[in-house]
Amino acid sequence: MFKHFLAICMGAGTIPCVLAAGEGSIVPEINGWGTVRSVRVDGYRFPVSTGMDVSTPRWEQVRPIEQWAVGDVQFSEGETLVYSGRIPIGESAVAYRHSIRTDDQGVWVKMEGTATSSMPIEALRAMVIIPAGEFAGAEVELLGTPAPLMISLPEERGDRPHLITGEATGVQVRKDNRRLAIRFDHPRRVTVQDERHFGMDQFRVYFMMQTGELAKGQTVSAELLLRPEVTVDDRPIELEVDGQRELYELHGFGGNFVYGSQSQASKYNLDTLNVAWGRVWMPLHLWEPENDNDAAGATDMEKLAANDKPRTNLRHSLEMAQELQRRKIPYIISIWGVPTWMHANPEKDRERK
Taking CA atoms, which of 142, 177, 273, 320 is between 20 and 30 Å from 88? Predict the structure, then answer.
């Protein structure tokens, strides 16, 4: 008999997704590495996400904050959720810190980037992203400009990616029953770009936090306020269940305990759901960043144990595996990447072997 599991967010990315939201609530859903991936407005999932990236001169390399591009991710809870990590780029890196909080105005996102060594850059950018499939045809207005600056987002990809640029205090997007207001901490030179020119079905609102050079230890920051509004269709629906037709046997829930596994959301799900299967991540690039020795059949455990440091993804993964073992929940450990020294072509950024 096949076993069927229902996978839900158990700390793999969205911290507040299991928490009940009251009427008039705005609740961000957050990726485990610290970017907003959507916002719940009275339960409705408003498709807006945030991001930050750093690029080398002439855009030869672009490194975003996303699952496979960052390392040393840490997380702390409180009234403000704080995520930090490192974006490797070239021979250097940018240490980032994202602080996310909500109030009656909306979702506040503060982005900070600090250079670990001096480096030339094309740009360090902050951005807000909306899907083209849902917002093509929307009206976009730059706020706080001397003269009105408005466009309609094209239904199809046009001749140029840059749709509108200007000095503004924010951006407003409107389509049908949805409106998104984005407010900046101070006037910024903002660009709205059609990412379909680059193979991505989305529109990107971005501005430069820094260009030209990042000095060692230099920190640059930006803060955004996201205010999504939607008229929710709350008409009741009817479901009809055929109790005479048996399809599958549900043995329990399964979940990815990867990013954010140390959060209260993970503990809540483990304590209240019948978790029948789990998965954790084995970040080998943290476990053995350099070859411990030249003998394939011998392992220098002391050297590996020295890399098991508190508040790292490696420690969080090992602790979660230990917790699942203690609860007698079967689990698998997934390896999504290997350290650079294990690649035959480590000089490549993609398609490594």
Answer: 320
